[in-house]
């Protein structure tokens, strides 16, 4: 590695220059020399030596000043500089290192010592240069990988946005005709004379259309949440309005399964004027109650409402099949279902609870659950509501 290495000697003594040049040439170094600092700086800029031997006591720039000039030059600053001097006191050696020298060899020097120090610092300079090149190469590779990752992320984000927008639009477009199907089927059942067979068909259509309507609503809510389009609609309301609507919708369904829905609401809350996202609360409780009826074959369902630590607690518990422990941690994730098999007896896409979580958090609330397998489940939310004075 030191073969053909170029050494620049800067010394005002012609005797020292000839002596050093003879030693280094004998050991296969390329040697250039200068008798003062300014000339040495000029030669270095032209030839870029691998290492510099620098005397301290010289006319014009002394060795310290010459070293400073080299270190100020961006092109030359990494070239190792070894000081050669008869100044043996400690402060001279310390100053030489402070201005940027890598070593200090006292005159008169020994040839083996000088050569050993040259070899060492050339090796260190070589390793440093290779390390810097390797770091630069790795940095370049990392930047290329980062750019590729960024591009991949942007493309994935664009794809995700397109999918979400498609989901939002198609859900919105489907909801309009589905609402008409639901409404007209209800009118057909309630206001039209039908035979028992026709009643059966109409009710089957009504049930299926409401299920599909709920799925589309979940899809729309999910897409809107990801596009940050879900907005709270703050209105004044009373708790009984939400509970009455839930009972009106779900009591007939519960009755068809011989289930009874009970309520336990603090009397002071029933008609208390409140301000908050009434529709958001209703939508969450709707999903809780729908699941409670779906997964309960025997027993009862309880709707419980109370104030707890400045938050309104809405809780729905059942005596249904319960939830396996391994499923609890993923229950509020999108498309999560207790039973994912193709032969599962319960319908649904596993979006209801994920949407309920989104809606609750959008209101600044909390959502929780507890369940015991084969004994039942309890779902509840705590949401901040303003009491209207």
What does this protein structure show overall?
This protein is an alpha/beta fold. It is 54% helix and 18% strand. The chain folds into 3 domains: 6-109, Rossmann fold (3-Layer(aba) Sandwich); 168-226; 235-387, 2-Layer Sandwich (Heat Shock Protein 90). The chain has helices at residues 14-26, 37-47, 63-72, 90-98, 111-191, 196-226, 239-256, 267-270, 278-294, 325-328, 352-362, and strands spanning 6-10, 30-34, 51-55, 81-85, 103-106, 235-237, 260-265, 274-276, 300-308, 311-318, 366-372, 376-383, 386-387. A hairpin with a 3-residue loop joins β11 and β12 (376-383). α2 (37-47) packs parallel to α3 and α7 (239-256) runs parallel beside α9. The longest helix is centred in the middle third of the chain and has 81 residues, at 111-191. The termini are far apart. Mean pLDDT is 84; it is low at 338-349.
């Amino acid at each position: 590695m030191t073969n053909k290495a170029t050494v620049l000697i800067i010394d005002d003594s012609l005797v020292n220059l000839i002596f050093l040049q003879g030693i280094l040439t004998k050991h296969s170094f390329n040697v250039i020399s200068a008798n003062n600092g300014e000339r040495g700086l000029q030669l270095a800029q032209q030839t870029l030596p691998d290492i510099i031997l620098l005397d301290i006591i010289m006319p014009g720039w002394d060795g310290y000043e010459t070293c400073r000039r080299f270190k100020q030059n961006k092109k030359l600053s990494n070239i190792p500089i070894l000081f050669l001097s008869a100044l043996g006191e400690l402060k001279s050696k310390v100053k030489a290192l402070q201005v940027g020298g890598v070593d200090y060899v006292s005159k008169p020097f020994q040839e083996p010592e000088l050569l050993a120090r040259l070899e060492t610092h050339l090796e260190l300079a070589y390793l440093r240069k290779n390390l810097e090149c390797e770091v630069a190469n790795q940095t370049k590779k990392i930047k290329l990988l980062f750019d590729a990752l960024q591009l991949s992320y942007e493309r994935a984000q664009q794809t995700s946005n397109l999918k979400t927008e498609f989901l939002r639009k198609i859900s919105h477009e489907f909801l309009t005709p589905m609402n008409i199907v639901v409404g007209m089927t209800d009118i057909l059942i309630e206001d039209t004379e039908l035979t028992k067979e026709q009643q059966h068909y109409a009710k089957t259509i009504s049930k299926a259309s409401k299920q599909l309507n709920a799925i589309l609503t979940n899809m729309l809510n999910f897409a809107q949440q990801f596009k940050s389009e879900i907005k709270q609609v703050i209105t004044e309301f009373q708790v009984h309005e939400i509970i009455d609507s839930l009972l009106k919708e779900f009591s007939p369904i519960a009755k068809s399964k011989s289930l009874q829905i009970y309520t336990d609401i603090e009397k002071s809350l029933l008609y208390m004027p409140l301000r908050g996202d009434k529709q958001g609360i209703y939508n969450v409780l709707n999903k809780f109650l729908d699941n409670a009826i779906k997964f309960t074959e025997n027993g009862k369902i309880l709707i419980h409402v109370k104030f707890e630590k400045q938050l309104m607690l809405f809780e729905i518990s059942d005596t249904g099949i319960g939830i396996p422990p391994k499923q609890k941690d993923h229950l509020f994730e999108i498309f999560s279902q207790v039973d994912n098999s193709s032969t599962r007896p319960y319908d649904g896409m596993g979006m209801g609870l994920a949407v309920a979580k989104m809606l609750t958090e959008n209101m600044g609330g909390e959502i929780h659950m507890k369940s015991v397998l084969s004994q039942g489940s309890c779902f509840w939310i705590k949401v901040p509501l303003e009491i209207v004075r």
